[in-house]
């Protein structure tokens, strides 16, 4: 008697062979090609590209905040020296 794993492996192989030799395989291949073209036209980003851009944005925002604080410090120093004159 076959082991249950052998039975399921054989069943899976039979189903794979059946699908590979049927119009379903062509349909799947055509659908993947169609979806690939649609996604290409949509100009989508990968998750890695998105994460990279988010990290760059966060660094830029932190730098802007630091520069704004520095400008305020310089303006307050300039205001003090102007009032002393």
Main attributes of the structure:
85 residues; mainly alpha; elongated
Describe the protein in words.
The protein has 85 residues and is mostly helical. It has 2 domains: 44 residues, no CATH class; 41 residues. Helices cover 87% and strands 0% of the residues. It has 3 helices and no strands. The longest helix has 38 residues. 0% of the residues are buried. The model has no long low-confidence stretch (mean pLDDT 84).
The helix fraction, in percent, is: over 70%
User: Biggest sheet, in brief?
Assistant: none
Element pattern in H and E? HHH
Radius of gyration from CA coordinates: 31 Å
Which of globular, elongated, flat, extended, rod-shaped describes the shape? Answer: elongated
Number of helices: 3
Strand content: under 5%
**Average pLDDT rating:** 84
**Structure class:** mainly alpha
Number of strands: 0
Low-confidence stretches: none
For the terminal residues, how far apart are their CA atoms?
103 Å
Tell me the layout of helices and strands.
Elements: H1 4-20, H2 23-41, H3 47-84
């Amino acid at each position: 008697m076959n082991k249950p794993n052998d039975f399921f492996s054989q069943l899976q192989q039979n189903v794979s062979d059946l699908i590979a030799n049927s119009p379903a395989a062509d349909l799947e291949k055509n659908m993947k090609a169609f979806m690939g073209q649609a996604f290409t036209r949509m100009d989508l980003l990968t998750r890695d590209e998105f994460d990279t851009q988010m990290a760059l944005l966060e660094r830029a925002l932190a730098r802007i905040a630091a520069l704004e604080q520095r400008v305020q410090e310089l303006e307050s120093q300039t205001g003090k020296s102007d009032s002393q004159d």
